[in-house]
Every structure is written in structure tokens, then in C-alpha cells.
């Protein structure tokens, strides 16, 4: 690929890395007390939910994207394999905002943020800092306009080959040079359009940030709230980047030496797209390593649990559903009319006849930004002076993975466990370990759902949606245990919230003033930043019912009237009186 050197030395010099520029790759000093604080979180577990707490209040919505990007940032250092992400969407809708926030929580030596893609810059970077300087680093290209040259550079950085190294040929000062990268990075890209190449799209999670009017209103309200408090840059003032960086370093330093074994079997139902199961496995292995401190370890192998599985499934489902939700009824009609094979490709006129939509509708749903070609659901090729189209391997599903029937009983799960762990024990140095004793310990670990419940609570997911993830037949032993464990954890967290919220009311308002419900919920969000708005609102109503000294003044806002209909997404704080009496 030739690089046009026209434009003078000024442009050339701007693309040469400057050591003073944020101290590229210089190891960031993190205070010892922050590292000790981070170690406590890592040892107790709950790393993902804690990181969600840190970022929760300054970026509204895009809940699953937050988990995905956290996993992506950890992926290469922990597993040796990168999870790349490409956020696609209109300008001003938050696709870059979340990238910037989470990149800010990664230590300086592990992240590189650029607003342009240049092979010359990468050449000088590797020349000055070594060919392995990008290994495992998050390289974020912010709000770029994609073209063939830029896609070629990203293609080099995301080469999925087995050697973890890549070369890129270019021309500089009329001489041919090779850019050598020994150890590939994690690549994040935000842009208005997707990659033109299906091969490139297959290397990334392609996610579409929430652009709904409802979220626009929530963001506007939050911006006003910060502004009225005198906070003009909440990303700088309200995010504990120091703790986030300390947690990142603690996890990477302590967990990167482990291998992961999966002692349970699962069924992969999405066989039409071969790239998706490797993405799921990268997520699963990354999440298991992040939770290493609360997992069983045998000879350097940590054993994945159901909780790791369902967290990975949660992100994977959200990725697939986001894609499907962006497909309108007419778009789906056009997509269903596309043939599966290239040799059966159809013209727009033929597709129009097959699906019953107008020619203009077919063209619009194929070619416009955010439509079938852009989303990676259709291929196109010019043939005999007209365009023809056919389906890609990508399909529309809501869930792609579930535990097998063998996991329905403890006996079946035990057989799966022995198939994997028995090999680990026999082949390693721990041959004296009794695999049957290890099974009893694993069974107890496998039924702990504390991190899953904490994470889904922060993702604004209702309990019934959490339980829908657990898709084994309802009569099975393991499901009963899982549901019971999750319900107990939810009940505990709800009970704790009610008690803490009541104490907060008494401290802030007891005896001298009565806020409106809206005012109290707003104040509560500062005290409980990890709790979502609806959960706080319902808990506030519950403490008013249960305690005579809790009084909320009438609020004229319809959103908070007592007669309002309950939203389908409202998380109800259940009446715990009966449970308390029975206990």
C-alpha cells in the first residue's frame, strides 16, 4: 500500500510519536493504598460489578456494552486472544463516550488513544519502542472515517493468525519498508459506518449504542443534574479512574498465568456463523480468569462455573439482540428474500418481487447506513452491470448457547466434571488430589451467583429476565438450586437496600423536612451509585409504606404520581414481611 507523502514535513512530523505525548507506554505510578484497595476487591470477587459501579453514573444506558468493553480490555493480557470492538452509530449518540471513559480506567502503559489511523505512525512507534510495544495494549481509534487504506491498517492489527505477529508493507520516502508488529493489540474503533469488508466485520463485535429518544431524555436529565450541581465535566470529576486502573493492574498481574477448564457441557445452537462461538469462548475464558480468586485452581488451571457461563451468555445475547432489534419489519422482509448462496444471488428487482416490497424499499434497506449491508447481513457484487445480493452467514437469533441436559442433574454434571477435571488431575502434579473430593467443592462453587446477581442488578435487568437466562427444564435439580441461590441473593440485596435507604432517609431528612419522592430518589443516587433509578424509586415507596416517619410530599410530576401504571421494566421490591416472619 502506497502512502502519499505530499503535504510537506509538517504532516509527516505530526505522525511521528513524541515521547512527551502522554508518556507513551510509560508505566503509570499507582499509589500503594489504591493497589491494596483493588486487591481487596479482587480477592473478594465482584470485579465486573465494581467496575460497573465506577462508570455507572457518567454514562447512562449501554449496560451490556460496559461489560463487553471491560472483558475486551482484559482479553489479550489474560487469554492471549483479543476481543475487538467496533461501535457504529450516529454522531452525538455516545458511541465514543463509553470508549473514552473505560479507556481512562486502563493504566497508561496498556492503552493508546488516537483520532487517526496511520501506518507511518505505527512504523515509528514500533521503531522507537520495539516491535512488541503493542502486545495486549488497547488501541482505540476515536470517531474515524473509514476507507480502504485505514481498513488495511486495522486488518494488520487484528490478524487472527496463530503467530500473534503481523507485517504491513508500505512506502516511505520513496522506499519500501515493512511494519513489523510482534504481539498484537486489542482494537477499539468508533465510526459512523461499518467496515466495507465482511472479513473485517467478522473480526469484531459490531455493536450499536442505544439511540432511542427515551435514552436521549435520560441523558439530558443527567446532564442538567450535573450542571445544576456545578459539575461541567462529570467524566473527569465523578469517575474513580485511580481505583479502576488499580483493579485492572491487580487482575492482570495475578490472573494472567492461569489456564481455564470448563467442567460442564453446553450446546451451541448458532452453527450458521462460525465466528461467534470463538467470540463466546473468549468472553467465557476472560470472565473466568477475572473471577480467578473465587474459582477452584488445580495445577494452574481454574475451573469455570455456571456464573461465568451466564455472564458470558448475557453479553453474547445482548450483542445478538441488539443486532436483531436494529432490523425493522421491512428490513427483515428484504433479508428473508435474499438467497443463501452466492450462485443464486438476486437483483434488487428480483428481491422486490420475492418479498412484495417496492424497489425503493429494497434499495433503501440494503444500502442505507445501519441497514442490511452495513449491519453485515447481506453480501453484494456487481455482475453484468447490475448489483446482485445474497445472505451472509450471519443469522437473527435471540440466544445461541445453553447448558446441555447433562447439567440438569448433579450426577450428569458430575460426569461432565470428571471428563475434564479427571484429565487435569491425572496429567498434572496434583495426582494425590482426590477428584471426588474436588467435585464436592466445585459443586458448592458452581451454585454461587453473587457476582451474576450484582452485575445484572447494575445492568437494570429485572429478576425474571435474569431467571430466563437459566434455560434448563424447570424440573431439574441444578436449576432448582440455581434459582434458589439467585432468589436468596436478590432477597438479601433488596433487604439490605431497604434498610440502608431507611437509615439514609432518617439521617438526611428525619424530623425536619419531607422531600418529594423525586427529590429523595435523586439524592439517593449519590449515596447508592450502583443502584438504578427504578429500583431506588420502588424501594423508596416501600420504606414509606413500612415506616410511619418516612413521608414524601406530593409531587405534581406525572412520572412520580401514585396512580401511574407500573412499567414493564420496573424492578419491584418484594414485600419481605412474610419472609421475615417465617424466618
Question: Can you describe this structure?
Answer:
The strands form five sheets. A five-stranded parallel beta sheet has the order 2-3-6-1-7. The protein has four domains: 8-252, Rossmann fold (3-Layer(aba) Sandwich); 257-322 and 398-472, no CATH class; 328-391, Arc Repressor Mutant, subunit A (Orthogonal Bundle), CATH 1.10.10; 483-582. The protein contains 25 helices and 15 strands. With 583 residues, it is of the alpha/beta class. The N and C termini lie far apart (72 Å). Strand 13 and strand 14 form a beta hairpin.
Give the helices and strands, then pairings.
Elements: H1 8-14, H2 32-44, H3 47-56, H4 63-79, E1 84-88, H5 95-103, E2 111-114, H6 119-129, E3 138-141, H7 148-157, E4 165-172, E5 175-182, E6 186-191, H8 198-201, E7 204-207, H9 213-228, H10 234-237, H11 241-255, E8 259-261, E9 266-268, H12 276-290, E10 297-298, E11 301-303, H13 306-325, H14 329-336, E12 346-347, H15 348-355, H16 359-367, H17 372-375, E13 378-383, E14 386-391, E15 401-403, H18 410-427, H19 435-446, H20 450-458, H21 463-469, H22 477-508, H23 517-527, H24 533-546, H25 577-582
Parallel strand pairs: 1-6, 1-7, 2-3, 3-6, 8-11
Antiparallel strand pairs: 4-5, 9-15, 10-11, 12-14, 13-14
Helix pairs in contact: 2-11, 3-4, 3-20, 4-5, 4-12, 4-13, 12-13, 13-20, 14-16, 15-16, 18-19, 20-22, 22-24, 23-24
Amino acid at each position: 500500500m502506497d502512502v502519499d507523502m505530499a503535504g510537506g514535513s509538517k504532516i509527516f512530523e505530526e505522525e511521528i510519536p513524541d515521547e512527551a505525548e502522554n508518556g507513551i507506554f510509560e508505566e503509570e505510578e499507582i499509589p500503594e493504598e489504591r493497589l491494596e484497595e483493588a486487591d481487596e476487591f479482587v480477592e473478594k470477587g465482584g470485579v465486573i460489578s465494581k467496575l460497573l459501579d465506577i462508570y455507572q453514573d457518567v454514562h447512562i444506558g449501554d449496560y451490556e456494552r460496559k461489560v463487553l468493553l471491560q472483558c475486551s480490555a482484559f482479553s489479550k493480557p489474560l487469554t492471549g486472544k483479543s476481543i475487538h470492538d467496533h461501535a457504529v452509530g450516529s454522531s452525538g449518540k455516545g458511541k465514543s463516550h463509553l470508549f473514552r471513559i473505560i479507556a481512562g480506567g486502563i493504566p497508561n502503559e496498556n492503552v493508546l488513544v488516537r483520532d487517526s489511523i496511520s501506518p507511518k505512525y505505527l512504523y515509528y512507534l514500533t521503531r522507537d519502542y520495539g516491535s512488541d510495544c503493542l502486545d495486549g495494549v488497547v488501541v482505540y481509534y476515536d470517531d474515524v472515517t473509514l476507507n480502504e487504506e485505514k481498513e488495511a491498517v486495522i486488518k494488520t492489527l487484528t490478524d487472527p493468525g496463530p503467530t500473534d505477529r503481523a507485517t504491513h508493507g508500505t512506502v516511505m520516502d520513496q522506499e519500501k519498508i515493512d511494519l513489523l508488529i510482534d504481539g498484537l493489540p486489542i482494537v477499539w474503533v468508533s465510526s459512523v459506518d461499518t467496515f466495507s469488508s465482511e472479513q473485517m466485520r467478522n473480526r469484531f463485535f459490531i455493536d450499536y449504542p442505544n439511540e432511542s429518544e427515551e435514552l436521549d431524555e435520560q441523558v439530558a436529565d443527567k446532564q442538567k443534574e450535573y450542571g445544576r450541581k456545578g459539575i461541567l465535566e462529570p467524566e473527569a470529576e465523578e469517575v474513580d479512574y485511580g481505583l479502576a486502573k488499580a483493579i485492572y493492574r491487580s487482575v492482570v498481574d495475578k490472573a494472567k498465568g492461569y489456564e481455564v477448564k470448563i467442567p460442564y457441557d453446553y450446546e451451541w445452537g448458532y452453527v450458521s456463523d462460525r465466528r461467534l462461538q470463538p467470540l463466546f469462548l473468549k468472553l467465557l475464558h476472560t470472565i473466568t480468569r477475572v473471577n480467578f480468586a473465587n474459582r477452584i485452581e488445580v495445577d494452574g488451571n481454574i475451573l469455570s462455573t455456571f456464573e461465568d457461563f451466564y455472564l458470558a451468555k448475557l453479553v453474547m445475547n445482548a450483542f445478538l439482540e441488539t443486532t436483531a432489534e436494529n432490523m425493522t419489519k421491512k428490513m427483515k422482509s428484504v433479508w428473508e428474500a435474499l438467497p443463501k448462496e452466492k450462485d443464486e444471488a438476486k437483483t434488487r428487482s428480483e428481491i422486490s418481487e420475492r418479498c412484495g416490497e417496492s424497489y425503493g424499499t429494497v434499495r433503501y434497506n440494503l444500502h442505507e447506513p445501519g441497514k442490511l449491508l452495513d449491519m453485515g447481513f447481506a453480501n453484494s457484487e456487481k455482475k453484468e452491470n447490475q448489483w446482485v445480493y445474497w445472505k451472509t452467514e450471519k443469522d437473527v437469533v435471540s440466544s445461541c448457547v445453553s447448558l446441555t441436559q447433562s447439567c440438569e442433574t448433579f450426577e450428569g454434571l458430575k460426569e461432565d466434571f470428571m471428563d475434564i477435571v479427571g484429565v487435569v488431575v491425572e496429567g498434572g502434579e496434583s495426582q494425590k488430589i482426590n477428584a471426588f473430593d474436588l467435585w464436592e467443592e466445585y459443586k458448592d462453587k458452581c451454585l454461587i451467583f453473587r457476582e451474576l446477581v450484582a452485575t445484572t442488578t447494575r445492568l437494570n435487568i429485572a429478576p425474571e429476565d435474569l431467571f430466563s437466562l437459566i434455560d434448563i427444564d424447570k424440573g431439574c435439580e441444578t436449576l432448582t438450586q440455581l434459582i434458589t441461590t439467585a432468589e436468596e441473593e436478590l432477597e438479601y440485596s433488596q433487604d439490605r437496600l431497604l434498610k440502608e435507604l431507611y437509615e439514609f432517609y432518617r439521617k438526611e431528612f428525619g424530623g425536619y423536612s419531607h422531600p418529594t419522592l423525586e427529590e429523595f430518589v435523586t439524592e439517593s443516587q449519590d449515596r447508592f451509585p450502583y443502584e438504578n433509578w427504578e429500583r431506588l424509586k420502588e424501594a423508596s415507596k416501600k420504606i414509606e409504606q413500612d415506616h410511619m416517619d418516612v413521608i414524601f410530599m406530593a409531587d405534581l410530576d406525572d412520572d412520580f404520581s401514585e396512580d401511574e401504571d407500573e412499567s414493564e421494566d420496573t424492578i419491584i421490591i418484594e414485600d419481605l414481611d412474610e419472609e421475615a416472619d417465617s424466618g
